[in-house]
Structures are given as structure tokens and as C-alpha cells.
Specification:
Oligomer: single chain
Radius of gyration: 20 Å
Strand content: under 5%
Length: 391
């Protein structure tokens, strides 16, 4: 077994089991909560953490590093689109509902994001940030770009703005809006094939090379599954093994299935064309189908995915936003303090730091994120019917 994977599993999962017992009585299951979706979010968070962990403690291109975090982020984005499609698209597009949506989303992501953005920008070196501290804060406040793993929050926030237009279009033309988005994506790929990266369809709107135009299809596939999930779920319920196949394919894809594209006519371009080779995961249809099967199966609480309802995974899913927002900073600081020590000593230090990180994420969720989100949502006409925590 990959030693880095073993170390990562020990240092990340052991604290979660400990804090699961601490936090068991702190959470009340909401009637709108789908437990397996929380567990799937927790699994996505763990894949990101276990990808970053070995890269920090000992740079290594083994199975536990170098890419599995991409699949976790992919799941986060599609799950976010799924829940927004399920909760909001069927509702009338009115000023009241849009205000409720805006307050719910702002209350969920903004408070912790702003705190972590400012602390990270002021405490980390410019080399780690990729920009000066002041520029990092400025770009982060504009949601154009953010340092380290915070870039995903800017993409999420940009999609929230796009979702309002998607919601408006869906209220007028229904599912046809997703056909238009599919046409947009196809045109974008064609422009890339024609080596025209300056096209408005290709040019990124933010500094980070992984930007909203590239991730819009992920959110939109999730939203389309969310608004149609009941009809799709009926088909999956007749073949529940498809959900298990989906989750197996998703996590076996990188090393077992991705190389097979080389044998598909034209398929090698997905992972070799110079215009998108570094960011090709959002163009792989296998990843889309497998992630959609996972999410729809979990939303239906299929028994074959019952492991997603395990308490440690559900706890990780509940506190996943806090874990995601602070984990890389904790790993970087801990490693910088003990980088000259042995791998074993650094692993023990990481175990202690991860335990502290889990405790901070749990406390943040209970005593900061939830109270602030409830306060923001409590504005007149701003209460959202959504009781599901989005990432």
C-alpha cells in the first residue's frame, strides 16, 4: 500500500472518528437533509485532503497524490449544481425567491471565506500566495481569483451569479436552456481545436487557469440532474448497482480508465491537446456520467451506497466547508515548521495539526457558520426553504 496514502488516512481519518463521538450530540438531523449526500460531500472533502497531504509532507507522484483532489472538487461543483437545481429551479422565478437564494448562498460561503481570505493573505508568503497580500485580498473580494484552494470559492460565487440567469431562462424555456449550454460547450471545444484560445468563448474571466467558463458544464449537468432527478432516480432504482459502479469508476478513473482514451479515435485529444491538457478533467464524459450516478444514487438513499451514511463521513460532510477552507494552510504551516525533521516526526506533527484542524472546523460550523448563516437568512422575505448545506 502506498505509504503516503497510509499516512494520510491515519492522520485525517483518525481525528474524524474521535470528533465524530464529540460531535454526535451536536447535530440534529433536519427533515430536509439527505444523509447520503452529506456523506458523499464528506468523501469528496477527504479526497481533496488526502491529495494535498502527501504533496505537502513529501512531494510524491503516487496514487494518493497528484490528482484525486480534482475529482473531489468535481464532485463538489456538480453536487452544488444538483442541489440548486433541485431546490430552486422548480420554484417560480420571482424577486422574493431570488432574494432568498442570494441570502442563503451569501450566508453560507461569505463569512468564513472572507475571514480565511484575509488571514491567509496577511500570513502567507507571496511565493505561496502567487500574488502580493494586498492583490490577493483585492482579487478575492472581487471574486475574480483567490490564493491557494480558495480559488474554488470564487468559481462557486461566479456560478451563483450565472445561476440567476439560468433560473430566469429555465422559467421561460424549460430544459431547452441546458441544450443551449451544451451547444456553448461544444463551440468552446471547437474553438480550442482550432487553436483560437483568444475567443470570447474560451478566454477565462479570472486569473486562475481553472475558471468559470470551464466549470459551467459541471454545475449545469448537476443542475439538470437536480431538476429532473426524480424521473432519473426511478430508472436508477431499477438498477441500483449503477450508482455503485458510478462511484467505483469515478475513483478508479485516474489510473485505470483515463489512459484508455488513447485507444479511442480522437479521445487522446482530451488529455493531450495543448489548449486544455492541464485542465482536461471537466471535458471527460466518463467523469460526468459516473459523478451524476453517484449523486443521484445518494440522493435516493440507495442501500448499496449505505456506507455514505456512516457517521464519520456525514460529520466530515457537515464540516467539509471549514475543513476545505483551512486544511491547506494548516498543512503548509505545519510542514514548514518541521520540514527538517524525519518523515515519521512530520507525520506525527501532521496528526496533531489535523486533530486541531478538525476541532476548529467543528467549532466553526457550530458556533460561527451556522449562526451567521441563520442571521443573514433571517432578513425579511429572505428565509430559504433550503435546509441542505451546500459547498
Amino acid at each position: 500500500m502506498d505509504i503516503d496514502l497510509l499516512i494520510a488516512l491515519t492522520c485525517i481519518c483518525l481525528p474524524l472518528f474521535v470528533f465524530e463521538f464529540i460531535g454526535r450530540q451536536c447535530f440534529s438531523t433536519n427533515f430536509n437533509e439527505i444523509v447520503q449526500l452529506s456523506g458523499l460531500r464528506g468523501l469528496a472533502a477527504l479526497s481533496v485532503l488526502m491529495s494535498h497531504f502527501p504533496n505537502i509532507i513529501r512531494p510524491y507522484a503516487g496514487p494518493s497524490a497528484g490528482g484525486y483532489g480534482d475529482y473531489g472538487v468535481f464532485l463538489f461543483f456538480m453536487l452544488s449544481g444538483f442541489l440548486m437545481g433541485q431546490l430552486y429551479l422548480p420554484a417560480p422565478f420571482t424577486c422574493t425567491n431570488v432574494k432568498a437564494f442570494a441570502l442563503a448562498r451569501a450566508g453560507r460561503i461569505l463569512p468564513l471565506y472572507l475571514v480565511v481570505l484575509i488571514v491567509t493573505s496577511l500570513s502567507m508568503d507571496s511565493e505561496v500566495l502567487g500574488e502580493s497580500p494586498s492583490m490577493s485580498v483585492l482579487c478575492g473580494l472581487e471574486f475574480a481569483w483567490a490564493p491557494m484552494q480558495l480559488w474554488t470559492v470564487t468559481v462557486e460565487a461566479q456560478f451563483y451569479l450565472f445561476f440567476v440567469f439560468l433560473w430566469s431562462a429555465y422559467s421561460k424555456i424549460g430544459m431547452s436552456v441546458f441544450l443551449l449550454i451544451a451547444c456553448y460547450t461544444s463551440l468552446r471545444i471547437l474553438y480550442m481545436l482550432n487553436d483560437d484560445p483568444t475567443s470570447v468563448l474560451v478566454t477565462c474571466t479570472c486569473k486562475h487557469e481553472w475558471c468559470t467558463p470551464q466549470f459551467v458544464p459541471i454545475f449545469c449537468v448537476g443542475a439538470a440532474c437536480g431538476v429532473q432527478w426524480q424521473s432519473v432516480a426511478r430508472n436508477i432504482s431499477r438498477a441500483p448497482y449503477l450508482a455503485a459502479v458510478g462511484i467505483a469508476v469515478l475513483f478508479a478513473h485516474k489510473y485505470a480508465l483515463q489512459p484508455l482514451w488513447a485507444f479511442v479515435p480522437g479521445g487522446a485529444l482530451i488529455y493531450t491537446h495543448r489548449n486544455w491538457a492541464p485542465n482536461s478533467l471537466p471535458l471527460d464524459p466518463v467523469v460526468y456520467v459516473s459523478a451524476a450516478l453517484c449523486i443521484i444514487g445518494a440522493a435516493q438513499s440507495i442501500p448499496i451506497l449505505g456506507f455514505l451514511g456512516s457517521r464519520p463521513l456525514v460529520l466530515c460532510g457537515k464540516i467539509s466547508y471549514g475543513l476545505y477552507m483551512i486544511h491547506l494552510q494548516v498543512f503548509v504551516v505545519t510542514h514548514s515548521l518541521f520540514e527538517n525533521r524525519s518523515v515519521l516526526f512530520r507525520s506525527l506533527a501532521m496528526l496533531s495539526a489535523t486533530s486541531l484542524m478538525c476541532g476548529v472546523a467543528l467549532a466553526s460550523f457550530l458556533y460561527f457558520e451556522l449562526p451567521v448563516a441563520r442571521y443573514i437568512r433571517s432578513y425579511p422575505e429572505g428565509k430559504s426553504k433550503s435546509a441542505v448545506t451546500l459547498v
